[in-house]
Amino acid sequence: MGDRTVGVVVRILPNSEQREGFHRNFGCVRKAYNETLGKYNALYEKDNSIKPTYTFLNKLMKESKKEYLYLDAMESTSLQQAVRDLSSAFDNFLKNPKHNHPKFHRKKENRNSFRQTIPANKKIIDKNELSLRRYGKIRFRTSPEYMELLNSDDIKFNNITIAYDGLNYYAIINITTNNPKQLPLTGDKIGCDINSNRNGWLVTSEGIKEFFNVNHENQMIKHINRLMSKCRKQSRRWKKLQKRLQKYYNKRTNKLKDYIEKLTYNLVKKYDTIVFEKNYSTIKILIGGEQNIIFPLSGFIQRLKNKFKWYKPDAEGVVFVDAKNTSKKCHHCGHIKKELKVKTRKWICPECGMELDRDVNAAINILNRWCLGDSLENTQ
Ligand SMILES: [Zn+2]
User: Fold this and answer.
1) DSSP designation for 281
2) HSE on the CB side for 339, CA within 13 Å?
3) What residues are neighbours of ligand 1 (ion), with CB under 5 Å?
4) Is the entire prediction scored with pTM above 0.85?
């Protein structure tokens, strides 16, 4: 198993002094980028087919540092990163005609972020605190799984990006891990039926039903939208409400993310093989109660696959079977009910009298189809 590089996103809680410093740093990175680009344009306006090297751009940036002393006072690896970003923007432009010539970064259009490189063998995480050059210790929050990973001894820190989305601050911690903690094989298999109904969006062959709801967040979003429609646009109250609205949107997204992370981890921990129907990529599940949010199943499957690769590389992992008749067939005797309506929630077999939840019956069929090696040829 080779080295694996991953970016772990955590929510950080900087104090007011650190926040102020971050915003200055965002501005300086933008300034370094724009100044370097401006200098390059002034020199080579007539011929932009010459690809500037990183070294050359860095030289231009160093000249700007002499002109603007506040740039010189800034954390230097974040400014170098700006030059690296500009250099790759030039790369893209010269490689692909679809890309535009690098443009100036504007405060409103561009994401507020800066990146620091981390010296080799330096540990920047201590429990739930990360230490950032120039800014000191900052508390952060993440899932127990990532907390354990970030605190483990066999990872190497590469770089860290600090970003602000208009509401919260985040750190994207880029790490290389050469010895991910693997989970033991259990030998267990499970079938999963995916639905978009109120019976649970995911139902397993063991009868477990998964629900996810963000009703509270949805209600708040609806409520704030109603309040906003009564205000004058861009007024002080409107802006305040907009911030609150963003807070609930973020909350909803984060809740979904957390939920998916936890669920996929627990599934991979418990089972070596997880069987789904083949047509999954087209399914978009509506979850979250009345005002639904659309959740692409392909994203969920991808997370599962990644976790298998990472935690259980020797397991069978995510597998698929043909979807035909999985809900119309009795898992017990094999009888096929042709006239099963979508509304009918309970499976009652006219042949053997088996009574079971409709989706659980389907999930068992999905699992059996995989276990019996049923392929496209011998499904009816
Ligand atoms: Zn039956």
Assistant:
1) G
2) 1
3) 330, 332-333, 335, 349, 351-352, 354
4) no
